[in-house]
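Much of what follows relies on a compact textual record of a protein's fold. A complete example follows; check for yourself that the lines match position by position.
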Amino acid sequence: MAKYLAILIHGKYGGEGRYEFSGPDDLLAQAPFQVMRAFMDSAEGTHEIGHIDYEINAALKNKEHGIVTVIGEILFEGVDRQPFMCMVSRADAE
């Protein structure tokens, strides 16, 4: 298992969270949607993130630098939808 870093930026509050998680060695070779799912599955229910629903509006993969970028909306209770951007890379790539 490899270590990955996800940087999640919340549009409304301007907050930036940095989250390390484990995943398969070839995670970044997978489709960007799969990379985001792996991060969200690892973060689901943790103290840092809690329960979260989301929709992906765009997902890009930069193979040269090994970075996946996802843009979408976090779905809070009720009708509250807030934009986010998430970048995922190998944790040792910093």
In short: Residues 2-90 form one domain. The mean pLDDT is 87. The helical segments are 32-43.
